[in-house]
Design brief:
Helices cover 34% and strands 13% of the residues. The chain contains 12 helices and 13 strands. Helix 1 runs antiparallel to helix 8, helix 2 packs parallel to helix 8 and helix 9 packs parallel to helix 12. The two termini are 42 Å apart.
Length: 380
């Protein structure tokens, strides 16, 4: 049976691409169509597609001029890609702690970590909950929003990913919409958009940040004296195949987000009344898009492993814990000496990430019933 997440024009667009052949360098093709549609959907001037949602962060930082000697403030409680992008840009990650109730970056901690070398802040909208970008902007530094897990999450009606100077989205398989791997950078600043586009396209000086302009026209490079590379860049461009698939997914984004929100709210409501398991808190005016339904086992009498084992024994299809804090990963352990994140240290071994991509009421009802059963089993 086909996965419920493939429910639109995916096959149609892929067939259209294969039947017509891949577009030439001067044609926007599906990549151009996707970028234009994404920009319109998120109400931004520029949307630039990428091979993945880590390259997006790398490009955004470089566009801001981040490089050797600079510092970028990041949270440790997230996928390590956020940290790795800072290192890839040649800068140093500095860890701000997270809030123990929202699980996202603490504004107070970020403020305390600012030095003369701080070039940007890169908060993560975790599990679908927007980071406190409005408050972070008041600190006076450029913001790169890592919205990989937050499609259509909102702060006072404003879409997450569109509030900072640049926003980054991921189309990796687990995200709200997907093509397997892919990403998008959004911005309203034409100079930043041009820098992002150049960085994703080998530093070609002739390209434009406008939709579909990730390649230069063949007539512009025909002459042997043509200058191609005016800047340093990588080949981070999204393929036409991935763009065609993602365009179809984007057309159903509201449906996908709505279904995840329904699942997440069901899990949150089920946990009400159990004081020892705390759901991720949404501040006033903030709308969670529920990439996952996130909880903290706020107790010492229920371990993550015991809870996980009980869920599996009851017939659940399981759940994930949080990633190791970035500075606790072996490859990044050298960063731990300057990390001071007690809230993140407390939360990480206690995090429960329940899945929200259930395509039927029957599947959801089953998982909610199991969750409730296990909660009662451990309740005192």
């Amino acid at each position: 049976m086909r996965n419920w997440r493939i429910c639109g024009n995916e096959e149609k667009y892929l067939k259209e691409l294969l039947d017509g052949g891949f577009p030439g360098k001067s044609e926007p093709g599906f990549t151009g169509r996707l970028e234009a549609a994404f920009a319109e959907k998120f109400g931004v001037k520029f949307a630039i597609s990428f091979t993945n949602g880590t390259a997006t962060l790398h490009a955004a930082l470089v566009a801001l001029g981040v490089g050797p000697g600079d510092e970028v403030i990041v949270p440790p409680l997230t996928m390590s890609s956020t940290t790795l992008a800072v290192i890839q840009a040649g800068a140093t990650p500095v860890y701000a702690d997270v809030d123990r109730e929202t699980f996202v970056m603490s504004v107070e901690s970020a403020k305390a970590k600012i030095t003369a070398r701080t070039k940007a802040i890169m908060p993560v909208s975790l599990y679908g909950l927007p980071a406190p970008v409005v408050e972070l902007k008041k600190l006076g530094l450029p913001i790169v929003e890592d919205s990989a897990q937050c499609f259509l999450g909102k702060i006072d009606g404003k879409l997450a990913g569109t509030i900072g100077e640049l926003g980054s989205f991921s189309f990796q398989n687990s995200k709200h919409i997907t093509c397997g791997e892919g990403g998008m950078v959004v911005t309203d600043d034409p100079e930043l958009a041009a820098a992002v586009r150049r960085f994703s396209s080998l530093g070609y000086g002739q390209i434009s940040p406008e939709p579909g302009k990730s390649k230069i026209d063949k007539n512009d490079i025909a002459a042997p004296e043509t200058i191609r590379h005016t800047h340093f860049g990588f080949n981070f461009r999204m393929s036409e195949l991935c763009s065609a698939f993602t365009l179809a997914q984007l057309e159903n984004l509201d449906k996908f987000v709505s279904m995840r929100q329904k699942c997440g709210q069901a899990f949150f409501e089920t946990a009400e009344g159990f004081s020892w398991i705390k759901a991720q808190k949404s501040p006033a005016g903030v709308e969670n898009s529920f990439w996952a339904a996130a909880f903290c086992l706020d107790t010492d009498f229920v371990s993550w492993h015991d809870f996980h084992k009980a869920m599996l024994s009851a017939g659940s299809d399981g759940y994930y814990g949080a990633w190791r804090l970035a500075y606790n990963e072996p490859a990044l352990a050298y960063l731990a000496k300057n990390a001071d994140c007690p809230n993140a240290e407390y939360l990480q071994p206690r995090m429960v990430q329940l899945k929200t991509h259930y395509g039927s009421q029957e599947e959801l009802d089953k998982e909610v019933a199991i969750f409730k059963q296990v909660l009662k089993q451990f309740d005192r």
